[in-house]
Amino acid sequence: MLNLDISKVIAVWGKAPLKVNPYQCLPLRYPKSSCRLCVENCPTTAIEIKEDSISVIDDKCTGCGICYNLCPTGVFEMTNFTADAFVEYPQDFKEKMIYVECFKVPHKYSLPQSLRLPCLAYITPSLLLKLISKGAGEIMIRDAGICEACESRCGDRIAKDTISKTQELLKDIGLKQKVSVIIEGISINNLDYEGNRLKDYKDDPELSRREIFSMFKKETKRGIGGLINKEKPLNIKGKKRLKKVLAKEREEILNALKEVIADKTGDEAQHLYGNNPMFSSVNIADGCNMCQLCCFFCPTDALTVEDTEKGQGILFKTATCIGCKLCIEVCPKDVLILKEKEFLFYDIINQSNTTLVWFDKNVCEYCGRVFTKTTYDNLCDICLKEKEI
Predict the structure, then answer these.
(1) What span, in angstroms and rounded, lies between the C-alpha atoms of 160 and 181?
(2) What confidence score (pLDDT) does residue 12 get?
């Protein structure tokens, strides 16, 4: 077994294991957005958000995955980890207790047949749901008590919050599986460091000399290419700022829910209720003037406009609402309310819409234009303004 980590060789060029999707960043979508979850929680202050750009300082980034876990819109993707590869680990999950721990745990102190990942912050609701859909009987997340000694510092805290939300979701669905944390500490005196950072104990694959040099050549070429062909700044302007994308994490949650609910009978599945912070609800109070800014700025298709010959309305889809609060921040009338509310899992997995507000279309009695009536006046907005003047 050869102790060769290509990612560490490439790391000398400052390539963090992170892909950034600027089009999904809320402050870039709407400059007045208050979202700074990634900046406020990054343990090494490696993330910077400016008026029209977001950047990661490579030599500061530890690849902890905290930004990846917390970002509601999926701005960050980890290039050194995929949930699909993780759950395809060659072992039978059926009814078994699964242990999960981080790479910082030395192999000699590792739990038997544990699943290992770069940091506990990589544990997301979709990852846990995937393990359960594979048949895991119980999932135990190991807190080895070493997070404070790690440069990432708070992977355990992020994981515990994820576990709490996921366990509540499982309870609502009526599944017997449990996700919990076990405290099984390691003395920090038994930990190894590489410079100022805790050593990663990753499984090194058995590679032939030819495979090693082939991989090295490929990765080196890619690393140098990144230096020669400088990447464009991660900034966005104009219409591209408003591209609608559902975060990969939310897509995977919805897909995993379909799988875990698949065993429910038809009638049972249609009457399965939940109440979880992962799925928020939006209400619109009196005073909406149908300006449509909430739909325009919504980063997903959670808020959309329905326009028919009879009228206009705003539709809401609980399944794709990520609770980012951008709709509240852009509303000029302050009539949007975001809250937790009981929902039907049937509506979630089928991505059903509900109508929040509806306004009939009328013919302006002054100019004859067809307009959406949002007040008691029978005049369109243009004529109302002219009348005021």
Answers:
(1) 7
(2) 34
